[in-house]
Amino acid sequence: MTESVVPPDFRCGYIAIVGRPNVGKSTLMNALIGAKVSITSRKAQTTRHRITGIQTTADAQFVYVDTPGFQTRHSNALNKTLNRTVTNTLTASDVILYVIEAGTFGPADQQVLDLIPGNVPCILVINKSDRMMDKAKLLPFAQKIAAKHDFSAVVPVSAEKGFQLDNLQGEIRKRMPENAPVFGEDDITDRSEKFLAAEIVREKVFRFVGDELPYTSTVLIEKFEQEGNLRRVFAAILVERDMHKAMLIGQKGARLKDISTQARLDMEKLFGGPVYLEVWVKVKSGWADNELGLRAYGYE
Question: Which end of the chain is more exposed for a tag (fewer CB within 10 A), N or C?
Answer without folding.
Answer: C
